[in-house]
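--- STAGE predict ---
source: upstream dedup step, 1 unique chain passed
mode: sequence only
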Amino acid sequence: MDVIICLAENSYWHGVAALVNSLIKCQFKGVLFVGYRGNLPTWINDQLSLVEGKTYRINEDIQLQLIEVNTKRHLGYEKAFFIAEVLKDPAIERLFYFDTDCIPIADYQFYLNWTDHHIGVCMDECFKFIHENHPWKLVWKEKLESFGYPSIYQHPYINSGFLGLSKINFSLIDTWVNLTSRLEKEGLDTSSFNKNPLLAVQGDQEILNMALSTLPPSIISVIGPEGMGFTEPIYLMVHCTSAEKPWSKNFLWSFLKTGNRPSLREKIFLSFLNEDIMCMNKFKYSLKKINLTLTTLIARIF
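--- STAGE serialize ---
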C-alpha cells in the first residue's frame, strides 16, 4: 500500500484540499493520512463519502484517513512522530510526506520510479549549499556522535516539506524520531520554531538533515530547488513557503506593500484549490482569481 502523509490545522485545510486535488490529477492510488489538530473543515463531510469512523472515500483510487493529533509540539516537529505512527501498519510499502503548502504536479509514476531504491528529497531555496565545515554541520556532527550515530553523508541542505521513501528505507523515520526526542531531552523547545540563523537547530528541517547525514549517499536521491518550484522550470512540485499562503493572500495589497509580484508557484497552487474538492465558495474563489489576475497585470506595468 502507498500512502501520502500530511499534517494540518486551522487555515491549512485549504492546503489539504489542494493536495487532494493534485493527487487526483497526478493519478495517485492509495491512502492519504491527515494528522490534524483542532476543528475539521466542512468540505470533508459535505463533499466526501464516509466509509467508516474517520475514513472517507475521495474516488475509486484514493481514501482519506483522519487521525487527530494531541501534541504540544509545533506540527513541524510532530512530522516524524506522526509518520512513525502511520508506519505501524505493516501493509505500507511506500510513503510520501508533503507539507500542506506543498503539492505534487508531476505524474505519480515519476515519484514511484524516483523512490524505488532511493530516499527522494529536494534542496532548500534559502540555503542551497552548506559547506561540510559550516558551523551548523559541525554542531550536527557533534550531536550525532554524542548520540551514537555516524556522520557519513555531507549532503546539500534539504527542505523538509517533502520526503519520499519505500519500505527498505523506513529506518530513516526512526532516526528522525530518536534525534528529535534526544534533543528535546537536552532542552530543545519543540513548541515553536526558532528563526535565529545562528542556531544549528531552528526547526524540524535541521533534524531531518541530521538524520539524512547518518546514511550512505548511495541511497539518497537529491533534486535541486527546482524540485519544489523554487526555481524554474517547475515540473515536479510547488511549495509556497512564504508566511502568506495562496488561499489567504491578498496579492494586490502584498504587491503594493512589498513590490513582490505573484509567483508562478502561487498561481499553480491556487489553481488546485477549487477543483474536484472545493474548499472555498465559488464567489470567494472568483474574487481571489480576479485579485491575482489584476495584480499580475499591474505588476507587468510597474
